[in-house]
Write a structure and sequence with these properties.
Number of helices of chain A: 0
Structural class of chain A: mainly beta
Largest interface: A-B, 23 and 29 residues
Number of helices of chain B: 0
Distance between the termini of chain A: 40 Å
Shape of chain B: globular
Strand content of chain B: over 45%
Distance between the termini of chain B: 36 Å
Structural class of chain B: mainly beta
Oligomer: heterodimer
Largest sheet of chain A: 7 strands, mixed
Number of strands of chain A: 11
Helix content of chain A: under 10%
Radius of gyration of chain B: 13 Å
């Protein structure tokens, strides 16, 4: 069974950093990209970024609004991806989800399995 | 970024009803359209991709249609487990996937 599990959320002060982990199991982690999304309380979904699988270059893309404050890395040997966010603001308060993603010809990147999410609360 | 607009933002329906949700892009996205279902406190569930292809395991009462800028999610006969919020997402722009604002389907 494909599973993804996020961890690392919690209460963080404005201006500080947080590193979230996404552990995958039940599939060959190397073969897939990992995407991160977030959802502020009572709001809709927002894409944060993606790290492509090594066969597709292992490169990253980030939402323009977050570029410069966010980075994603992937450790295939451990089956874990990480989302690092710096200079946190109160508006970064959200549930952060990771997902298994893959490129599908003529349809772009698809995120077919998601973790349960981890809540990051930015507050003093 | 490509803007996605869903309508309505909410609707009330009864079990057995046919439900239709619309999603519009502000530019053509061909068929690069995904639908998710989200229940309170849960992660989104991947339902449909390429505008009309049902993900494995998704009940056949769900269907999607559309191409270009206008898309529709239809639930042919609403079941109790279908009460949820539905989101569309464009996968046309790899560098900036964007979502519609969501449609909440609740019990009439």
């Amino acid at each position: 069974e494909v599973q993804l599990l996020e961890s690392g959320g919690g209460l963080v002060k404005p201006g500080r950093s947080v590193r979230l982990s996404c552990t995958g199991s039940g599939f060959t982690f190397f073969d897939y990209a990992v995407s991160w999304f977030r959802q502020a309380p009572g709001k809709g979904l927002e894409w944060v970024g993606i790290i492509r699988s090594r066969p597709y270059g292992g490169t990253t893309e980030y939402a323009a609004s977050l570029r410069g404050r966010v980075s994603i890395v992937k450790d295939d040997s451990k089956g874990v991806a990480y989302l690092q966010m710096n200079s946190l603001k109160t508006e970064d308060t959200a549930v952060y989800y990771c997902s298994r993603s893959y490129y599908h010809d003529n349809t772009g990147y698809l995120s077919d399995h998601w973790g349960q999410g981890t809540l990051v609360t930015v507050s003093s | 970024d490509i803007q996605m607009t869903q309508s309505p933002s909410s609707l009330s329906a009864s079990v057995g009803d046919r439900v239709t949700i619309s999603c519009r892009a502000n530019q053509s996205i061909n068929n690069y359209l995904i639908w998710y279902q989200q229940k309170p406190g849960k992660a989104p569930k991947f339902l449909i991709y390429a505008a009309s292809t049902l993900q494995s395991g998704v009940p056949s009462r769900f269907s999607g249609s559309g191409f270009g800028t206008d898309f529709t999610l239809t639930i042919s006969s609403l079941q109790p487990e279908d009460f949820a919020t539905y989101y569309c997402q464009q996968s046309f722009s790899t560098l900036a996937p964007t979502f519609g604002g969501g449609t909440k389907v609740d019990i009439k």
